[in-house]
């Protein structure tokens, strides 16, 4: 296949570095999304530059991942990790550095795809000064998030304004599920253009090993009942619900039951504190013997964990998309998830897994026990999950849809954003 040369595209992801090790603090779905979308678009012939903020002086300023696909780190604010809720003061500097980069290299981007509201703000600011089309993916919606958490950060008001302005002025919003589109319309604004393009997963890397082999490689009991969680340690991920559900399971005293909780954290940082809180609950409930906190799971081992598990649990209070659910399905492992956000779109109840009301420990216990009690049915759920991912959620398919969207938007004239926003 030969490709037409295409206009360079800037994917902007200020706090979600596409080149970072996933499982480090605050690194999760957004980092994976930007990197995978970037690489898949590059494979279709788009020159893709992924802009992020340098968060450590040792990080290279430019990383070439493959022909046509680079991570470019701009220095904006201190070269250290900054939690996303504290990133706003450095955005103006990021805009200036982006403009400087264009001036120095002679590359003038005509299309930017911004990720999360911090980058969304940068996009709005850039559009005041240069002719640009903006595509925006939220990854998380302020209004929905703040309904689900008890401590609302000081920056909330600004974020809600930026979320709304992005929806109303970006050339296109990419919602990753119909549920997200509905939230945007009902809770943010009636104005603005939305396309639904889901997240994807790497179907060639997941589900390529048998369950027996995966267990052998990881040293798990071939007959074990393995319940798996993977993801960030954040209270909104609902890991406490899972732990309490396991404490009520009818297999609670079965020596074959094992709860594996995977994901990285750093002591003293927000995710380290959450992990510490959860370890105390595990201890109080007397689950130490059956629970294993693995820490960050390496990319090479993650497919083995997914495949070795009998059930993967995604107990989030709120989940805009939830990559873990489709990664599990791609690995032939049924999912028990909260009945929220993108999980309602990806997990088909009774077909690829089960959905439960968020925070409802008893419902999670019942769902997990149903799957653990019935291996034949569980196998059917796993097969159906794999099929669903192959047809709906590959990164290649996602990139094709984005590529069509970019082509269409680039064929339309760009306009300077004439709006004075003060946040
Ligand atoms: N991941 C992780 N922890 C690890 C290794 C990988 O969370 O130790 C990956 C996981 O496989 C998934 C992503 O990080 O691809 C988490 O994405 P999701 O959408 O489920 O949650 P988010 O981080 O966006 O809240």
Automatic annotation (TrEMBL):
Query: Which residues belong to any copy of the Glycosyltransferase subfamily 4-like N-terminal domain?
Result: 28-200
Q: Which UniProt keywords apply?
A: Glycosyltransferase, Transferase
Indicate whether Glycosyltransferase appears among the record's keywords.
Answer: yes
Q: Which residues form a coiled coil?
A: none
Domain Glycosyl transferase family: where?
211-387
The question of whether Glycosyltransferase is a record keyword is answered with yes
Q: What is this protein called?
A: Glycosyl transferase group 1
The organism named in the record is Planktothrix tepida PCC 9214
The organism that produces this protein has a lineage beginning with: Bacteria, Bacillati, Cyanobacteriota, Cyanophyceae, Oscillatoriophycideae
């Amino acid at each position: 296949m030969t490709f037409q040369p295409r206009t360079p595209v800037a994917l902007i992801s200020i706090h979600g570095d596409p080149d970072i090790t996933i499982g480090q603090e605050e690194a999760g779905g957004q980092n994976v999304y930007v990197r995978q979308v970037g690489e898949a678009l590059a494979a279709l012939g788009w020159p893709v530059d992924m802009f992020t903020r340098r968060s450590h002086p040792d990080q290279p300023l430019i990383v070439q991942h493959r022909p046509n696909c680079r991570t470019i780190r701009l220095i904006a604010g201190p070269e250290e990790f900054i939690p996303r809720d504290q990133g706003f003061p450095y955005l103006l500097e990021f805009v200036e550095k982006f403009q400087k980069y264009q001036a120095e290299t002679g590359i003038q981007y005509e299309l930017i795809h911004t990720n999360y509201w911090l980058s969304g703000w940068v996009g709005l600011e850039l559009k005041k000064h240069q002719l640009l089309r903006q595509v925006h993916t939220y990854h998380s919606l302020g209004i929905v998030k703040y309904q689900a958490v008890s401590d609302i950060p000081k920056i909330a008001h600004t974020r809600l304004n930026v979320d709304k302005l992005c929806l109303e002025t970006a050339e296109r919003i990419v919602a990753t599920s119909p549920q997200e589109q509905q939230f945007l319309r009902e809770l943010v604004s009636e104005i603005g253009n939305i396309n639904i393009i889901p997240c994807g997963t790497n179907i060639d890397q997941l589900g390529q090993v048998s369950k027996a082999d995966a267990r052998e490689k990881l040293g798990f009991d071939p007959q074990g009942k393995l319940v798996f969680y993977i993801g960030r340690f954040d209270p909104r991920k609902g890991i406490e619900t899972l732990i309490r559900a396991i404490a009520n399971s009818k297999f609670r005293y079965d020596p074959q039951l094992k709860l594996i909780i995977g994901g990285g954290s750093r002591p003293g940082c927000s995710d380290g504190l959450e992990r510490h809180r959860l370890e105390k609950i595990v201890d109080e409930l007397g689950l130490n013997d059956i629970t294993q906190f693995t820490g960050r799971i390496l990319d090479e081992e993650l497919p083995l964990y997914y495949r070795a598990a009998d059930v993967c649990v995604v107990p989030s209070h709120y989940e805009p998309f939830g990559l873990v659910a489709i990664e599990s399905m791609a690995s032939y492992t049924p999912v028990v998830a909260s009945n929220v956000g993108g999980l309602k779109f990806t997990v088909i109840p009774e077909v690829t897994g089960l959905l439960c009301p968020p925070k409802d420990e008893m419902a999670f216990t019942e769902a997990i026990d149903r799957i653990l009690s019935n291996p034949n049915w569980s196998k059917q759920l796993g097969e159906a999950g794999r099929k669903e991912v192959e047809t709906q959620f590959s990164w290649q398919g996602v990139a094709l849809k984005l590529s069509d969207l970019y082509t269409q938007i680039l064929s339309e004239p760009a306009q300077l954003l004439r709006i004075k926003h003060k946040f």
